[in-house]
Amino acid sequence: MNDETKTADVSASPAPEHHVFEADVARLLHMMVHSVYSDKDVFLRELISNAADACEKLRYEAIGTPGLLGDDAAARITITLDEAEARLTIEDNGIGMDRAELAEALGTIARSGTRAFMERIEAAEKSEGTQLIGQFGVGFYSAFMVADRVDVVSRKAGTDAAFSWSSDGKGSYAIAPADLADAPVRGTRVVLHLKDEAKSYTSKWTVERIVKAQSGHIPVPIALIEKPGAEANEIADGTALWTKPKSEIGEEAYAEFYRNVSGQYDDPALTVHFRAEGRHEYTALAFVPGSQPFDLFDPDRKGRMKLYVRRVFITDDAGLLPRYLRFVRGLVDTADLPLNVSREMIQESPVLSAMRKGLTSRVLTALEKLAESDAEKFRTIWETFGAVLKEGIYEDFERRQQLLGLSRFRTTASGDGWRSLADYVKDMKEGQTAIYYLAGDDLNRLKASPQLEGFRARGVEVLLLADQVDSFWVTMAGDFDGKPLKSVSQGAADLAGIAKTGEDASSQSVTTPTVESFIGFAKTVLGDSVSDVRASDRLTESAVCLVAPEGGPDRALEKLLQGAGRIDGAAKPVLEINPDHALIGAIAEKGKADTAFGEDAVRLLFDQAHILDGGKPDDPRAFAERLSRVFERALGA
Predict the structure, then answer these.
(1) 509-635: which CATH architecture?
(2) What does the DSSP 8-state code read for residue 527?
(3) pLDDT of 342-358, one tens digit each?
(4) Residue 116: its pLDDT value, please?
(5) Which residues of the chain does CATH 3.40.50.11260 include?
(6) Is a pLDDT exceeding 60 seen at residue 479?
(7) What is the DSSP secondary-structure string of 561-611?
(8) CATH code of the region 408-503
(9) Which CATH class name applies to 3-236?
(10) DSSP secondary structure string for all residues of 172-221
(11) For 443-452, what is each residue's pLDDT tens digit?
(12) Is residue 396 within 8 Å of 387, Cβ to Cβ?
């Protein structure tokens, strides 16, 4: 079939096919059309980013099929302004799309985060809107912030057919064959028919300013045509930023590149740019974001570092950083891999393994240096990503001590600040041999826990661990600087060797025979509900508390495992009783003569301990009945 016949077939094709957008797309378009974003300039950056991606995809495909490039091997993006017709056109000579790909790419949103995006954007202030666009992969639709209609013409590389896509953003779109004479030889042309209030985007100065500020570092040259028929002038040279010496790159250039590569609109909190030389050579440019990416807690927990081979994009799923550094954005470019590297080769390549190790070490070292040189900036990073970094303590044995050194904690001595383990060890009390911690799910509840009382009386600092991940890493951490980590809610407190401070310094706990007898009675009453009942040296103000037995998980981890269905039943707790508490003394005396009262009191104390531990009585009705009986006796009713 010759070219004339193909063209005739296209012209004889049926009328455009009209389709209704998916519900989520229609909802998104409604937001775009009604201008929920305060910074509309973002649309141009998003369309240029899409065009650059198409060029990079073609470079990759051309590795195996060089003929796709034809006589036009150099990638480029061209922006054409038409003030008279109020049109703005962005055209690339990248991979292009066929009919099915047009429908899939522009008629649906396949990203699982779309609904979350909708919910957040509807609840967000306008100032947050521009930060959300790129995060959810919906950048193309931002064109409808400035356009009444968007027309797309695309021709996939290596094919002889072109197709058009058109929509006014009001609920439907049309796809039809396009005239080859008016279509790109290869690639995609996006034509925006601008709204009246958006005609400033046909100004050379406006567009050039936006491109240089937001897209000046993409690895594809960008040319600007001021009006139809005019000469194209290059406004961005397509030089990959990571190939330049660091001395030639300013902070703003790094920041803009970060926004391009990450899809975020904040500034990076930390930039790591280096070239590794030796057995394996590669260049890495990595950024710690200034705010949490939306997918930080994605169950897949995949990294977002892109892999390039000789500036050709290969994949963003190479696992270049461990999962606990998945918030880091950026890329690695190497010449030590073949351009046609397969997914299997990526997983098994010793070159990739060496790069992973080197990149991880560089990022962690950069964080350590920042912690030493700018504690306030590091604090901000820790508050944003600390919960994720701590995953590495139980996942990465080789770097466990390094990660423990980086970690920061709220403690009973920190107030509203943060403490490092080095700070903690430096201030340990005489006779203290362990690093103590209390884990849970609420910081304020931890601060009020009765299990801290004995430690507070001795001035012993306790780590307050309120992140879910804390209950897991502490079981794997082992020790820091030779000091083991010990839960204050598990086993004996072992506080006898540490002197009390302040007003309590001279006080000594004495268990009277009456109280000792009551403790034995309580153990009999509670029976199989507990593993032990004993006098406590950790309580100074509260009457009772629960702790976990010496073996097995501590109280916080046990609750998490139960909630996740990982264990069938809880271990029997230990009930600790404060022998110096006035209430305990009074109950013990009254219980000697009134066994029924004593039994009710024991069970109420056990329920009270559950409540103080963040739980509830095992049998609320029985709890209420016992409480009523105790009140009646106390009031003589």
Answers:
(1) Up-down Bundle (1.20)
(2) G
(3) 666 777 788 999 999 99
(4) 53
(5) 408-503
(6) yes
(7) HHHTTSSSSPPPPEEEE-TT-HHHHHHHHHHHH-HHHHHHHHHHHHHHHHH
(8) 3.40.50.11260
(9) alpha beta
(10) EEEEEE--GGGS-SSEEEEEEEE-GGGGGGG-HHHHHHHHHHHSTTSSS-
(11) 999 999 999 9
(12) no
